[in-house]
Specification:
Blueprint: H1 4-12, E1 16-20, E2 25-28, E3 33-38, E4 53-57, E5 64-67, E6 70-71
Antiparallel strand pairs: 1-2, 1-6, 3-4, 4-5
Bound molecules: zinc ion.
Zinc ion binds near residues 23 and 60.
Length: about 70
């Protein structure tokens, strides 16, 4: 997953998840409303898109949540 194209393909394939701490459950990356993206200031490697914190609206609780990305085939 070394480039943004692979990242987008993985997202499109439904393999990327975010965690809602309010619902205590994982929600699919494609199912949420994306509000913001916070760069990880401690990550300087070649795949920064995997290390951002995503601010999103959870479709279950409708709350604004923050989560790092999780990949699950
Ligand atoms: Zn939720």
């Amino acid at each position: 997953m070394g480039n943004p194209g692979e990242f987008l393909q993985t997202c499109a394939a439904g393999k990327v998840w975010l965690f809602c701490s309010q619902c205590d459950t994982a929600v699919n990356f494609n199912a949420v409303e994306h509000l913001d993206c916070i760069e990880n200031p401690h990550y300087w490697g070649p795949e920064p898109w995997w290390h951002d914190t995503r601010v999103f609206r959870c479709p279950l609780c409708l709350g604004e949540q923050q989560s790092v990305l999780h990949v699950n085939d």
